[in-house]
């Protein structure tokens, strides 16, 4: 039975600061406090800009020995719209942009940006704290317009480090295409990201497909179950806000245990990021799994001096 590692899809979300962390806590104290309660976290800021190595080194230094970071790749690498100024300064001059100032991802830029990301998160890798690189694709990356082979160069550029890829267009896993999709993941050694998503048949909503395509790592992200908000919300809170019930968490637990029967490690990340929804659900989930949820927020020993 593989290990199930639980965390949230950020540690610095505004809702966490407002509702979950002790009031008045300094920003540089939040990650160590978070790491007393969870074994892993998704680095979300790297989706918007490549982090600085000095900052990454500090993250590695203030977290426990076995703590894990799953690092989101830059939005341009995930085929999302990205403004030119989101790139590292030295990559902007040679980068191409469209008439709206959005980055055009060329093979040269893809290699350079992936290489820069690997370099800047080196302190995590050196400390044994790099879990995987997470590629969160846009729903526009569809089988009607794209081929999974377009991601080969990115997977190669990040190798041999684990790469987890989240599809956000359900047509990749519908009918006979599912087998071809999972075969590509297995052949490339990429981890297929399973999701707990809202109910619905909209192409942007992935069905509950569980698969292990890399034996070292399985991945499950919990997005909440608010269909209307997920499809039409303008803010993160509107799209992903959801208070999971214990029954719903048990359902996710059954899926995680099933994945753990086939993978060495399963990362379960809660992305229902509204107020304290995600960390609260993640701690309750740990308890349901029989894991230590860590000290409660009101523990006197954590009071600010």
Protein topology:
Blueprint: E1 3-8, H1 14-19, H2 27-35, E2 40-43, H3 53-61, E3 68-72, H4 89-92, E4 96-97, E5 103-104, H5 107-120, H6 122-126, E6 130-136, H7 152-158, E7 163-166, H8 177-188, E8 191-196, E9 217-222, H9 227-232, H10 236-240, H11 246-260, E10 265-270, H12 277-288
Parallel strand pairs: 1-2, 1-10, 2-3, 3-6, 6-7, 7-8, 8-9, 9-10
Antiparallel strand pairs: 4-5
Helix pairs in contact: 5-7, 11-12
What's this, in brief?
This protein has 305 residues and is α/β, with parallel strands linked by helices. 34% of the residues lie in helices and 16% in strands.
Rg to the nearest angstrom?
Answer: 19 Å
Task: Extract low-pLDDT stretches.
Answer: 300-305
Helices and strands, in N-to-C order? EHHEHEHEEHHEHEHEEHHHEH
Structural domain count? 1
CATH overall fold name: TIM Barrel
Gross CATH architecture: Alpha-Beta Barrel
Broad shape? globular
Mean pLDDT: 94
- Helical residue percent band: 25-40%
Biggest pleated-sheet summary: 8 strands, parallel, barrel
CATH class call:
Alpha Beta
Please give the count of helices.
12
Task: Please give the number of β-strands.
Answer: 10
Oligomer: single chain
Find the CATH superfamily: Protein of unknown function UPF0759
First-residue to last-residue Cα separation: 42 Å
Strand order of the largest sheet: 1-2-3-6-7-8-9-10
**Structure classification:** alpha/beta
């Amino acid at each position: 039975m593989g290990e199930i590692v639980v965390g949230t899809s950020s540690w610095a979300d505004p809702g966490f600061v407002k509702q979950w962390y002790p009031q008045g806590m300094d920003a540089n104290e939040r990650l160590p406090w978070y790491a007393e309660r969870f074994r892993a976290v998704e680095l979300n800021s790297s989706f918007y800009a490549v982090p600085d190595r000095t900052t990454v080194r500090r993250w590695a230094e203030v977290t426990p020995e076995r703590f894990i970071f799953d690092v989101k790749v830059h939005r341009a690498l995930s085929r999302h719209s990205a403004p030119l100024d989101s790139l590292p300064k030295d990559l902007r001059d040679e980068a191409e942009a469209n008439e709206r100032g959005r980055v055009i991802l060329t093979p040269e830029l893809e290699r350079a940006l992936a290489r820069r990301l690997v370099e800047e998160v080196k302190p995590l890798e050196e400390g044994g704290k790099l879990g995987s690189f997470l590629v969160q694709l846009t729903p526009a990356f569809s089988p009607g317009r794209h081929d999974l082979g377009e991601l080969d160069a990115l997977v190669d550029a990040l190798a041999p480090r684990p790469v987890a890829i989240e599809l956000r267009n359900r047509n990749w896993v519908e009918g006979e295409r599912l087998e071809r999709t999972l075969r590509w993941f297995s052949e490339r050694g990429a981890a297929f990201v399973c999701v707990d998503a809202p109910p619905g048949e909209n192409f942007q909503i992935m069905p509950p497909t569980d698969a292990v395509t890399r034996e070292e790592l399985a991945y499950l992200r919990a997005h909440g179950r608010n269909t209307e908000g997920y499809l039409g919300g303008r803010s993160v809170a509107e799209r992903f806000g959801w208070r999971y019930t214990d029954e719903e968490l048990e359902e996710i637990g059954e899926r995680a245990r099933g994945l753990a029967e086939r993978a060495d490690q399963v990362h379960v990340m809660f992305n229902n990021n509204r107020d304290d929804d995600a960390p609260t659900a993640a701690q309750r989930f740990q308890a349901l799994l029989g894991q230590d949820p860590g000290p409660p927020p009101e523990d006197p020993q954590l009071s600010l001096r």
